Each structure stands twice: as structure tokens, then as C-alpha cells.
């Protein structure tokens, strides 16, 4: 009997340790995804609105505002429902809505690009604001992860400072990876929208595995979310971001490490190299 009790305690301690490690992995991925979305957001908007300090200030300022709301809501939410299942539900919704951002923003940005070409400032400004609002819910949900994880990880008040410091350190380390990896490699290689989908997909996978650990086969009910993302991606990403004006044909649309690029050809055979918002022509040949 003593042996069985000892084995039960060892098993319980091992499972708890594994649970904490998975919680740290979740926090790391959440921090990485948050900064990856922020950096990708500036590129998503820069393709149409340019990369001025005004664009950067709006992106950074609003992301910080959404994170502030997330930290506040996450702490209260964790006290109200301190269960791992609740945290994984939040993560799944955050990843799903994060993946939706570029897909919903695509038609809005296309409208804004046309408005820029026609010098319709009001419509362009409205599109800019609409895209920024799209980030509100997913970023707020991402902000809830760290305070929620702290609430789940703390067993004794004496360890609360150490636990909180460890979780925020892991989250910040993930944010560091999420800062450089998209900018230096993934965006130039895959593109902005694909970067959103990649990081949101990684977070979704971590959240789904965590949900499976909690509720087993009932986790399958969440799979409608990635299926919907795939369907929307196939529909939304079929056309160009910025349609060429009348009299021109789009020859190339691509992204480099620094710019969104279009090559257009007019009826006389002249070709135009346009960068980012396309208000100026970089080259004609």
C-alpha cells in the first residue's frame, strides 16, 4: 500500500511537471506569435499605406493598447475560471482570429489601394482604421495568455514572484524570436499573408494539443476553425492585392525583404516598377 501511494505521488508529480513544461511552451509560442503578427501588420499595411513613421506609430500604439487590455482581462478571467481548458480555448480563438486578419483585410486593402490610386483620401483612411481594428480581438486574447499562465502555474504564494518572472522571461524570449524570424526570413521567403498563417497555425497546433490533453476526442469539435481558414484562403488569395489601372496589365506581384513589388505593362509596351503603395514609379523601361 505504501509503495502504491509512493508511485501515485511520483506519477502525479511527473504529470504536473510535464503540464508546466507544456504551459511554458504555450507561453513561448504566444509571445512569438504576438510579435510576429505585429511585425507582419506593419508590412501588411505598408504594402498599401507605405512605411512612414505614422503607420508604424499607429501599429505599435494600438498593439500595445490591445495587449494592455489583454493583460487586464486575462488576470480577471484566470481568477474567475482557473482551468487549463479555459486557457486553451482562449489560445484556439486567438490563433483562429489571428489567421483571419490577413484574409479579411485583403479585400479592405484592395479597396484602399484603389482609393489611393483615385486620390480618395476618406476611403483610404477608413480602410486603414478598419484594418487596425481587425487586430483588436486576437491581440487582446494573446495578451491574456501570460497572466492566465501565471495563475495556473502558481501553487504557493511564496513562489509567485519566481513563477511570474519565469513566465514573462519565456514569453519575452518568444517575442524576440517573433521579431527577427519573420522580418529576416519568413516574410521575404513566403510573403506577409503566409507569415500570418504560419505563426497562427503554430499557435493553433499548440493550443489544440493542449485541448486534446484536457478533453481528449472532444477537442475535434474545434477543427472547423482551420478548415474555414483554408477555404477562405483559397477564395480570398486568388487575385492581386492592387489591381492595375485601366490600360495596364499586371506582369508580376511579389514581396522582397524590403518592399511589395509590382511590374505593370501598358498598351505601348512600357513596363513600370511600382513599390509598396505605388504612388511613385520606381523605374520605367
Report on this structure:
The protein is of the alpha+beta class and 285 residues long. It has two domains: 2-236, Growth Hormone, Chain: A; 248-284, no CATH class. It has nine helices and four strands. The chain has helices spanning 2-49, 53-80, 84-117, 121-134, 136-143, 145-153, 160-190, 192-215, 224-236; strands spanning 248-255, 260-266, 271-275, 281-284. Strands 1-2-3-4 form a four-stranded antiparallel beta sheet. Helix 1 runs antiparallel to helix 8 and helix 3 (84-117) packs parallel to helix 9. Residues 2-13 have low confidence and may be disordered.
Name the descriptors.
4 strands, 4-stranded antiparallel sheet, 285 residues, 2 domains, elongated
Brief overview:
The protein is 73% helix and 8% strand. The protein has helices spanning 2-49, 53-80, 84-117, 121-134, 136-143, 145-153, 160-190, 192-215, 224-236, and strands at 248-255, 260-266, 271-275, 281-284. The longest helix has 48 residues, at 2-49.
Layout of helices and strands:
Layout: H1 2-49, H2 53-80, H3 84-117, H4 121-134, H5 136-143, H6 145-153, H7 160-190, H8 192-215, H9 224-236, E1 248-255, E2 260-266, E3 271-275, E4 281-284
Antiparallel strand pairs: 1-2, 2-3, 3-4
Helix pairs in contact: 1-2, 1-3, 1-6, 1-7, 1-8, 2-5, 2-6, 3-4, 3-5, 3-6, 3-8, 3-9, 6-7, 7-8
